[in-house]
Amino acid sequence: MRFSVATAGERLLPERLSARAQPFLARIDALISAPDARGEAGRNALIAFTIRIVNAAIAFFSQVFLARWMGEFEYGIFVLVWVTMIILGNISCLGFHTSVIRFIPEYRAKGEFAALRGINLASRLFVLGSSTLFAAIGILGLWYFAPSIESYYVVPFYLGLICLPMAALSDLMQGVSRANAWVIWALMPTYFVRPLLILLFMAIALFAGYPADARTAMFAAILATYLTTLLQFVSVTTRVDRKLPAGRPSFRMREWTAVSLPIFLVESFFFLLTNADVLMVGRYMAPTDVAVYFATVKTLALVHFVYFAVKAGVAQRYASFMHGGDRAGLETFARETVGWTFWPSLAMGIVVLLVGKPMLMLFGAAFTEGYPLLFLLVTCVVARSAVGPAESLLTMSGHQKICAAVYAATLAINIGLNMLLIPLYGLWGAALATGVAMLFEAVILSVTVWRKLGIAMLIFLPLKKAEPLKKTEVGI
Asked: Which residues contact 218 (CB under 8 A, 6 or more apart)?
């Protein structure tokens, strides 16, 4: 017996309200029960959206507790180090954590199981090796430049680099899970389990008498990251191996690397772009300012997670449409994902502006300094959501090189404006630089998708008549 949202609404809601809600509830039923590709992608996006809602709450309140326990100065140090490690962990995958989302569905659809076994094995070994190398280079660089770095950052950065290989492996496992449409395993470890464990280990450390500082928080982060990633690795690997027929793997490292490296540039620029403002505030301002700005960004994350949830649910489906040659299906689905991104982002933006100040007060009275920044940042995030996950569409369709160029230009604008505006206007300068970069990114991505694929990735544009996919449009 299948659960029906429409039936439940009819039984639980007043008759008049139920009658008005039935068309909307029927659409939810169709999304939940549809057996086709659109239905699966919609369910995955809905699951991802739900997980990100839970994660937003967990991440927010865990950061509130950390800020209350540690104080603004030590919390600001921890924030800068942890954000840097998350960025480096993603970058050190060298694009393999995203390219597997393209290759795994392709090989499965073509029945190329030897290549499928190869990409699964090679990606794990490659990411572990590359991230370990990144960590080693980071340790050497930190040792060399230590005299020119503020002393309170040195030990926390050393500790953070210990997390790097596991953070990178977690990103890869997230990509493998997304490629197999296992959205829960893709998101739960990183966005649910890890922040809870960081909070738990930090609480245990404080109860045991350790100081409430950035070093203790980094030890908690190390334990949480290793435990979460190893659990995720064993679970996902076991599930992958169980679904694959036995046989020898084949390795196409030249092909995989040729696709992964441009994606590496895209992901690197994207992650740096997403976090450049926090890093630049850390470069020019005190840890207390980093703490205030990061708390503001964490509040803004309630709007951001809509985009990330949709992206997590649709990238694999973009790849399937592209390699299946279904242009009409791709265009219709791509335009639907724009709506999935924009309207919830708009709603969440309004909510954040209404409750932003009391949310920031939870961190401490000084953190409300960031509330006025939310009006600028929310407006820009909602404007960015009007083009949906356009960069995922470009990457999955073989246009990762031009996507990398777009993000490189956007990152250059962001960093340049931060360098110019933060010394003049402080946190307002960082927010303004980030907002201008977001708007530039949205415009250029929308124009690029239109020119390369002929798809109008913009919320208010009409759907044009689709034409058959050309080989050049799928990167072959």
From this structure: 78, 81, 82, 156, 159, 160
In the block, residue with structure tokens 């995958």: 93
Supply 222's token pair: 């190390």
**Under 8 Å CB-to-CB from 215, ≥6 apart: which residues?**
155, 156, 159
Identify which of 276, 302, 288 has the alpha carbon closest to the alpha carbon of residue 410: 276
User: How crowded is the C-beta side of 332, counted as CA atoms within 13 Å?
Assistant: 10
Whole-structure pTM value: 0.75
Nearest CA among 235, 385, 365 for reference residue 306: 385
Q: List C-alpha distances in Å: 227 to 68, 178, 360.
A: 25, 21, 30
Please write the tens of the pLDDT for every residue from 214-253.
Answer: 999 999 999 999 999 999 999 988 888 887 888 888 888 8
H-assigned helices in 325-399: 327-361, 371-385, 390-396
Q: In whole angstroms, give the CA distance from residue 227 to residue 230.
A: 5
Query: How many helices and strands, by DSSP H and E, does the chain display?
Result: 16, 0
- Which one is predicted more confidently, 122 or 319? 122
Answer yes or no: are the C-beta atoms of 429 and 376 closer than 8 Å: no
Least confident of 6-20, 210-224, 254-268: 6-20
**Alpha carbon distance 168, 236 (integer Å):** 15
Alpha helices in 190-326 (DSSP H): 194-207, 214-243, 253-284, 287-324
